[in-house]
Each structure stands twice: as structure tokens, then as C-alpha cells.
Amino acid sequence: MTRMPTGVEIHGACDPAFARVRRVFENNFAREMETGAAITVHVGDEPVVDLWGGVADERTGRSWDRDTPCFAFSCTKAVTAAAALRVAEQGGHDLTAPVASWWPEFGTAGKERTTGEHLLSHQAGLPVFDRPVSVAEAADPAAMAGLLAAQRPQWEPGTAHGYHTFTYGWLAGEIVRRLDGRTVGDYVAAEIAGPLGLDLWVGSPDEVIDRAARLTTGPGRRSTAPSGTSGASATGPVAALTRATHDPGSLLSRSMAAPDVGAVPGRFNSREVLAAGWPAAGLLTSAGGLAGFYRDLLAGRIVSPDTLRDALVPRATGPDRVMVLDSSFGLGFMRPSLVFAVPRAAWPGAFGHTGSGGSIGLADVDHGIAIGYVMNRTGTELSGGTRAMRLIKAVYDSLG
């Protein structure tokens, strides 16, 4: 245990070879960038970093524990994608086939040739709902899928890509629900998190919500840009992202406006939201649970190595019609790009997913590492964040 100058105690263990990860983690607290946070790193099946500290709930002063679950926003998408890939693999389903072959209602309004791979790689052209959606409505995945099935896409599916902030979950989630019969949350609990012993829930029971970290914005504000983009030209892509963020009519703003979380007291701290299990942004997980998920992906315990290898092949790379900046996606997993910023050594093999505000899950097929970082002081970055990127760099620096 280490006590920082701020009085924050850092708990856990760290292999001496990864001491720089501990220093960066401690420094994030010393610079008052954190309220509560945790990071876990595995090399193969061996945990080399397992650190936590700070306060899980500022209202009560409850401390962050090793197994404190935290809302991880879009880190959920990778879990949903893994569930869809597992269902397709085990059932022998072809994700290059038209969605309408297993979801007949979807094959209308210009979506007839949309494939399962399009759903998993943000190419479906359905990043926004055509009408307002309440938090109560969003608890019904069949209803959400029905709304999207009736819509006309923003672009011809497969010809472009754009980040599907919330709609991704109800599109990719239908692969699970239609082909297996269970919701993403039920499937993950029964087939992935439960058997593998992972502290990870898509739709959480009361006892998990009761001990979850409470999100806070903390003092000050940070940039809406992804990490690593500060200082960019006022006329460049980051400026375009800023304009899109503040334009209520942009695809980016519209993609974040439904479901209307702002109408619910507590927003993402709301029990109603945490229990709903939105398959694009409904994950409660500990750092150990998130790192363990990626460890088990690499080890072939969730899908076969061949399925994972194929899923990591970029299906959509370049200008993102929603986030404006260049992005890159395999089947559900982010690949290195401006919105998934990783050290140069990580570019060939790294994959994973960020969560709005700063959380991240990452694995590297070349280096055999798995990382989970969660925190309750959310920044305003749409993808990644300075704290996470400094930690990831420290991990790679420790590998030599």
C-alpha cells in the first residue's frame, strides 16, 4: 500500500518490472486527476499489475475496493461483439450473409443487402434514431431493434462507416437475441462472465449496483477530443469534431441524444440505466473483470483464435461520418487510429474499446497483454483520455 501526498492510499500489487505503471497511476492521483480508479494488467494468464485507490462514492466517502464495479460506457461494445461472434461461431452462422436472412423485418428501406459484419463494424448507416427514445423504452431490446429495422439508413450500408453510439448495441445485439434467443446481458452472464468468473455485467442486479462506483465529473473540464489530439489546427479534424459536438443537428450529437439519459435523475448513476443492460453502453465491470475479459479472449476461452483473428481484420477504416475523425473497426473492436490512440509499438496487434470519459479495455495479440482501466471521474473525451493513454504507454514501456 502506498500513501500519496494527497492522502490517497494506493492498494494492490505490481510486478517490479511494471513499476512505471504504478508511478503513472499514483501520479494521476497526485495531480488530482482521479477520484477513484483501478487498473489491471495481465501478461498471458499472469497478473502483473492490480492497483486501485481513491473514493468510489464521494457522497458517502466509501473507498474503492479491488472488486468495485464501475460503469464503463462503450467498453460494452466489445463485450457485445464477443457475444455475437461466439453465437455465430457456435451456431455456424455466416456473418457475411444478409441480416434479413435471420431478421426478416430488417430487410426494408434500403437495408436489404446489409450484413452481420456491417452491424458489427459501424457500417449499417443507422447511428441515430428517427425519433426521441426514453430511458424506459430503451429497456426493451426488441422494441429498439424494431425501431431500427423500420428506418432508412443515413448511407448505403457497407459504403461508409460512422460510430453508432447507442444504436450499435441493439443492432449487434440482435445477432445474439435472434440467433440464440437470449438478450446480450443474459448471454454474457451465462456463457462468458459466469463460467470465466469475471466481474462483468451488461445489466446489473441490485447487489452489484449497490456497490458500484458513483460517477462524477470532478473539478474542471477537459477537451471533447480524443486523447493525443490537443494543439491541433483550429481548422483541422479536431475542430470539426468540436463543431459536431456543439451542433445539435449533427449525427454525433443526435447519436448521443437518444436514449435521453439527461431526463433521468442521476443520469448514468441511475439504477434504471444500470439495470437495463444497454448492449452498447450498459457495462458495469471491475478493472480485473475487464482485463480478464481480454485475457480470456486472447486465450481462446470466449471465441476460437481463428474467429478472433478474423474479427481483428479492419472492416472500416478512414473518415468516420459520426465522429468526423478517422477511425478503424474490426468486428466490434477498435483498431489503432486517432480515436483509439495507442503507442506505436501497439499498432500491429492492439485492439479493444474505449469508454466515453476515459475508461478502456485493450489487448494485444502480438505482446499477449490485456489491460482494464476504469475510473469514476469522467472526462469529456469522447474516446480514450490522457490518464488511460499514459497508463497504456507505461505498460508498453515496461515490456521493453
Question: Any overview of this molecule?
Answer:
This protein is α+β, with helices and mostly antiparallel strands and 400 residues long. The chain has a single domain, classed as DD-peptidase/beta-lactamase superfamily (Beta-lactamase, 3-Layer(aba) Sandwich), CATH 3.40.710.10. It is 34% helix and 16% strand. The strands form 3 sheets. Strands 1, 2, 3, 4, 5, 11, 12 and 13 form an 8-stranded antiparallel β-sheet that branches. Strand 1 and strand 2 form a beta hairpin. The protein starts with a strand and ends with a helix. About 3% of the residues have low confidence.
Q: How is this fold's topology laid out?
A:
Layout: E1 2-3, E2 9-14, H1 19-30, E3 36-43, E4 46-57, E5 62-63, E6 70-71, H2 76-91, H3 116-120, H4 135-138, H5 141-150, H6 167-180, H7 184-196, E7 200-202, H8 206-210, H9 237-246, H10 251-257, H11 271-276, E8 283-285, H12 287-298, H13 305-311, E9 316-319, E10 326-329, E11 350-354, E12 360-364, E13 369-375, H14 386-398
Antiparallel strand pairs: 1-2, 2-4, 3-4, 3-13, 4-5, 6-8, 7-8, 9-10, 11-12, 12-13
